[in-house]
Design goal:
Radius of gyration: 17 Å
Helix content: 40-55%
Largest sheet: 8 strands, mixed
Strand content: 15-25%
Structural class: alpha/beta
CATH superfamily: P-loop containing nucleotide triphosphate hydrolases
CATH topology: Rossmann fold
Shape: globular
Length: about 250
């Protein structure tokens, strides 16, 4: 698969990872799903941050079906998904307090990966919000991605963890496609510097050239949208961060 367009009529899985929490990964996943839907694509957003699932909280929904029904084999992803009409995409919620992804048995993890794979038959884009961490479960899901988006900020710990995600992804799937998203950048110049730090490290030590998916500028309207439990592109479609997200979606094809 080329580093250009990842669009496919047969569905693709876009995994959003960070290695650590606190970088806005879940908010980014929601916003990306909406931006892709606004392009006319059929999108499923799956919450794989099992024990600390909070996509439903950020969207202000209380679904009566969630990922646990899929993992137990009681429902297909299509049956367990909840439609978000105003945002134009479907959500497969996680289940807070259900235990961490790392605690899944190999059989349950296989079932989850199979479910995500089967979802590609119905949705053109399956966006997976991967929980923080570098355990084998996270690594297997990242390795199964058609494209892995690694979210980082300028914080040193974020850069270190993003580098670790990229390193492990290269080990687990040497031919895998990954891109870097810089979130909460003060401006485009500072975001570019953050990206260059990761790009140079990956080039020097991993011998890989990791492209930039995009830079999302720090925007107070993001906090407002999260506080009101409304997607940014719905509440503040003209915000700077909204245009940044849409540019990333456009770049994915």
């Amino acid at each position: 698969m080329s580093q250009g367009s990842f669009a496919s009529q047969h569905g693709r899985m876009i995994v959003v990872a960070s290695g650590k929490g606190g970088v806005g990964k879940t908010w980014f996943s929601i916003s990306l799903a909406q931006a892709l839907a606004r392009k006319g694509r059929r999108v499923l957003l799956a919450d794989a941050d099992l024990g600390l699932a909070n996509i439903d909280v950020q969207l202000g929904i209380q679904p009566d079906r969630d990922l646990s029904a899929v993992l137990s084999g009681k429902m297909t992803p299509a049956e367990a998904a909840t439609r978000i009409p105003d945002a134009g995409f479907d959500v497969l919620p996680g289940r807070s307090g259900s235990g961490a992804l790392a605690s899944l048995s190999p059989t349950a993890l296989d079932a989850f990966l199979a479910a995500l794979g089967s979802a590609r038959a119905q949705w053109q884009d399956v966006v997976v919000d991967l929980g923080a961490g570098l355990d084998m479960a996270q690594r297997r899901i990242a390795a199964a991605a058609d494209v892995l988006l690694v979210v980082a900020t300028e914080e040193p710990t974020s850069l270190t963890d993003a580098y670790a995600v990229l390193k492990l992804h290269g080990m687990d799937n040497p031919k895998g496609v990954s891109r870097i998203v810089v979130n909460m950048a003060d401006d485009r110049s500072s975001g570019q510097r953050t990206y260059e730090s990761l790009r140079r490290a990956a080039g020097a030590f991993l011998k890989r050239e990791i492209p930039l998916a995009g830079i999302v500028r720090r925007d107070l309207k993001v906090r407002d949208a999260i506080r009101h439990q409304v997607p940014l592109l719905t509440r503040h479609p003209g915000a700077a961060a909204a245009s940044d997200i849409e540019a990333i979606a456009q770049g994915l094809g």
